[in-house]
Design a protein that fits this description.
The protein has about 130 residues and is of the alpha+beta class. The chain is about 35% helix and about 25% strand. It has helices spanning about 1-15, 20-25, 80, 100-125; strands at about 40-45, 45-50, 50-55, 60-65, 85-90, 95-100. Strands 1-2-3 form a 3-stranded antiparallel β-sheet, with no helix packed on it. The protein has a 3-stranded antiparallel β-sheet with strand order 4-5-6, covered by helices on one side. The model has no long low-confidence stretch (mean pLDDT about 80).
């Protein structure tokens, strides 16, 4: 996408055409910004995955999928071939991230299961019976 933006910008400069309709082409890469730089972070309030934020209360489930020969990410690199894909399902959307080591898989599994469990307990206490 970055190459596309640079090419469109250079085309606009070289053709001396900088009308308002030309600038609309710069919004095309924003449609792919949901996975901004392939960032994934666990923060105090939830998960950040690209430009998406999923609060702990919105997470319904998560699971690890081993990357084998039939997986869509198989073949990109040797680290990925031995890794896992973490899939987090929320109320309205889902996200995924690639885990390349067994150690990181265990850490994420412990953290996510603890935080999701704590959140389920808090929501059960808050619901009137």
């Amino acid at each position: 996408m970055l190459l596309f933006v640079i090419a469109v910008f250079l085309f606009g400069i070289l053709s001396d055409y900088f009308g308002w309709s030309f600038y609309l082409l710069f919004f095309l890469p924003l449609s792919y910004s949901y996975n901004l730089l392939n960032l994934f972070a666990i923060v105090e309030g939830g998960l950040l995955s690209g430009s998406r934020f999923i609060a702990w209360g919105q997470i319904k489930s998560f699971h690890f999928v081993p990357i084998d020969i039939n997986h869509k990410y198989y073949g990109y690199s040797k680290e990925v071939n031995r890794g896992y894909e973490l899939k987090v399902k929320a109320k309205f959307l889902s996200t995924s991230c690639i885990i390349t080591s067994e150690e990181m898989k265990e850490k994420l599994s412990n953290v996510l299961s603890e935080l999701v469990k704590v959140n389920e307990e808090e929501s059960a206490v808050q619901k009137p019976r």
